[in-house]
Prior knowledge:
The protein has 18 helices and four strands. It is mostly helical. It has a two-stranded antiparallel sheet with strand order 1-2. The protein has a two-stranded antiparallel sheet with strand order 3-4. Helix 17 (297-310) packs antiparallel against helix 18.
Amino acid sequence: MAKSIVLTYILWLIGGFFGLHHFYLRRDRQAFVWWATCGGIFGLGWFRDLWRIPDYVGYANGYGDKFQVVENRRRNNLKPIFNVVRFGGEMALGMYFGFMAMCAIPEEVYQEGSAAQKALCYGIVTMATTIGVYVVSNIGEETTELGDILTYASVPAIFMFTKAPENAPTWIAVGAAIGCMYKNKYKPRSQPKSGLCRRLTMLTLSGMLIFAVWGSFLYHNASVTTKDGETIKLRDSIDNFFTSPAWLQFKKNLWELYDYGQTHGWDKVWQQFVESLDPTGEANALQVLGVDKNASQEEITKRYRKLAREWHPDRHKENKEEAQEKFMEIQKAYETLSTIKKKRERKSSQKRSNADDFDHRF
């Protein structure tokens, strides 16, 4: 089915940062890059699509000057024309993936790990950088074999990891992008098309992989600062959290809630959960006024007047702002409880009236 240029622009406008228009045109790799880099390197790719979309639609539908140029070169077995933007995109995504993989590995492994551990880490960073370059090199009508890219990336990888490991992803990406420049070719025109389910699955798995790498980076390298100014690694604070009294009590409450649900039914659990959220504000109002749930309107009024006199701003010259806030909180609590009491009295009165009418009829 022919792709619509109007619909493509609409998708570009409403979901272009996430590559929605590229997904519509079956340019799934480009859609992934746009999603993973916030609109194609922080919006640059998304903005460039503003005048590139007609060519993309032309490629998808098989028409246009750009399409004819590609077809002629493909029929004559010519190499793709060198594209500075594609070359830069290969380097950018390669470096991004490489540094992201490097950050996801604990610093101690690079500094204190064994030779085998370091070699494994360097291999992971090299592969991540190469995959970033590979993804961009296979966008659209062009393709490059992963093995060829890896061959060109291995030489700077070996050199940089022995001299300056912190800069390795940059030079690996350069070598891999140069490999794409020499080894890229056009894709065959007739390729089997993947179904929607398969495409969504691949994009979802790719997204989960990105999230996993970022999660590993935060877990191993991020830190939190306490009120005393002490810096603690996030992974240590997480381990301590799962042995803290707060977490143990929370876990105990969950098990008690599960047992209660098994015994009394989950509808009762849901009802208790809703009540614990205090949607009407009654629980908070009762706490503010310091009265019982079964207190009468007279008791509530009496308590309100006492607290209002106690916290009236005119009686607190030094901390007048604090008294003002407390006074307003007391007023709000009184109004909340009074409104709830009136509603319940009306409902009770209506029920009694309906019951009397029923008795008169029968």
